[in-house]
Amino acid sequence: MNEVTISGLPGVSVEIHPLNQSNAPGEANGGYYRPLYTDFRSDGFSHQLIKREKDVAIYRKFKIVDKFLFESYEVVIVRNREEYTIAGKTIPAAEIYPNNEAWGTFGFTYSDYQEAYRKFCNLKAKAGARQK
User: Cα–Cα distance between 49 and 66 in angstroms, integer?
Assistant: First the structure.
């Protein structure tokens, strides 16, 4: 387990947990899904995985403009997309990040890490209750 300090939040450390084999993304229902990226860029923002447990994750979303840091946290429910073919090209099965239309149902944005972490825990508890 590693700890990092979130820039702009002095004294706040965030644990980054490596995924273990039993919790590894990309394997569900006996099939293989290309894992969601841990770091990626979208709409001019960098996204960095902070914490993931099963299909619930927290990403730090940020960009720097004219020396100013714009930062938020996104809590997402990672979903699976099955393999499909379009124009003769096969697109492999993959985990997917919620799109704009799914925001508010499968994705949530917070400016405060503690609020994001509370939502993460809440979603994790709901996912556990559904699996019982």
Answer: 24
Dist. CA 127–CA 93, nearest whole Å: 22
Sheet holding 56-65, edge to edge: 39-42, 45-53, 56-65, 68-77, 107-110
> What are the beta bridge partners of residue 63?
70
Extents of the domains making up the chain: 2-131
SS3 98: coil
In angstroms, the CA 52 to CA 117 distance is 11
Question: Please, what's the b/e burial string for 88-102 (b: 16 or more CB within 10 A of its CB; e: otherwise)?
Answer: eeeeebbbbbbeeee
* Closest-CA residue to 52 (of 24, 33, 94, 10): 24
Which position has the token pair 């709901």?
Answer: 126
What pTM was computed for the model? 0.73
- pLDDT by residue for the chain (132 residues), tens only, comes to 344 444 444 444 444 434 333 344 444 445 789 999 999 999 999 999 999 999 999 999 999 999 999 999 999 999 999 999 999 999 999 999 999 999 999 999 999 999 999 999 999 998 775 655
